Amino acid sequence: MTDTTEATLYQRLGEGAGIAAVVDGLYTRILGDETLAPYFTETRMVDQKRHMALFLAAAAGGPDGYKGKDLGVAHAGRGISGEDFDRVIGHAASALAEAGVDADAINQVAGALMPLRPVITNEVAAEQTA
Ligand code: HEM
């Protein structure tokens, strides 16, 4: 079987099927979080899960099938705080752990997502010219 020292992050997440399971777990947690759920009241969750799964697959070095919006544009004007972002990262870590992903790979995912914090949150976006 695949040696984990050589497997790509995408493989360690279980490829497309593994990522789909993680994304299911992630949005179950997000919609169960009373701080985060209100952001998604108008959202078609089937589409949202598909976009997130494709985005994560590409971010993990898998196939680049993401055709959604630029993440700065997708989140602009929603008033998302740094604390909201950190809660989502926490739920992602829990969903990854529940899916059996090892701690090292979870840290890699979190590390890959952290640069998005200023892109997605209102706090720092207000200080940027973009
Ligand atoms: C690492 C963090 C995040 C990633 C990778 C991410 C990823 C995405 C992606 C791929 C989309 C779809 C864009 C499209 O449809 O073209 C999206 C939309 C969205 N995200 Fe995020 N997101 C993150 C954090 C957050 C946070 C912290 C919140 C709020 C608490 C949030 C709320 C939303 C909302 C409300 C939408 C629009 C849903 C709709 O179309 O109705 N996201 N996000």
UniProtKB/TrEMBL annotation:
The keyword ATP-binding does not apply. GO terms for biological process: oxygen transport. Gene3D superfamilies: Globins (1.10.490.10). GO terms for molecular function: heme binding; metal ion binding; oxygen binding. The keyword Metal-binding applies. Keywords: Heme, Iron, Metal-binding, Transport. Its cofactor is heme. Heme binds at H51, H75. It holds the Pfam family Bac_globin. This is Hemoglobin. It comes from Microbacterium kyungheense.
